[in-house]
Amino acid sequence: MKKACVLLAPGCEEMEAVIVIDVLRRGGVEVVATGLQEGVFEASRQVKLCGDVALDDLENAKDFDLLVLPGGIPGTHALRDDPRVRDLLLHYFQSPHKTIGVICAAALVLDAHGLLEGKRFTCYPSTAPDIQGGTWVDERVVVDGNLITSQGPGTAMAFALKLVERLVGVETSMEVAEGMLFEG
Asked: Is the distance from CB of 68 to CB of 20 less than 8 angstroms?
């Protein structure tokens, strides 16, 4: 069974986190929602979220097939400024058989660590001018090697289904979409 780690920070975008977790699980992926901190926190729209485990308590954080960073402000800033997240990202980018999924403003995290150089990516359109590296593409979901990026809350479902496709296959992704009555 494929495994995914979704990093949750206070101030993350609820839809981008919850939709990804839900769709991956529907696709048969084992998902660990990992909080930067322990316990319940408030997301960007004051929805209360709680990770399955805190990052400090997660064993083998580098052993997942997929690492996902939801966007949202100030969640993106918390991810960007956390050295544990930087170390995980560097590991995942250097591992050819691992996938990184980043949506919305979370592309800023990659840019802050120089990880968009030479990559095609997308993000929330108003965030794009703040990004120095890579080539921004105005598409809902962009795949470049082991990096999958998406634009924002309204593209979270398409993003999550692309992640399922990458990990489990196109048939499973299509079955999950059909089961949710998603036409995207």
From this structure: yes
Tens-digit pLDDT profile for residues 33-68: 999 999 999 999 999 999 999 999 998 999 999 999
Q: Which of 9, 4, 17, 3 is nearest to 104 (CA)?
A: 17
**Residue 17 burial by CB count (10 A; 0-12/13-18/19+): exposed, middle or buried?**
buried
Q: Report residue 55 as tokens.
A: 């990052």
Q: How many residues does the chain have?
A: 184
Q: Which two tokens stand for residue 149?
A: 């990026």
Catalytic residue among 5, 12, 104, 123: 104
Lookup: tokens for 25: 């699980």
123 is catalytic: no
| Domain spans in the chain, listed from the N-terminal domain onward | 3-179
Task: Identify the pLDDT of residue 77.
Answer: 98
pLDDT at 182: 96
Fold of 3-179: Rossmann fold (3.40.50)
Global pTM value: 0.97
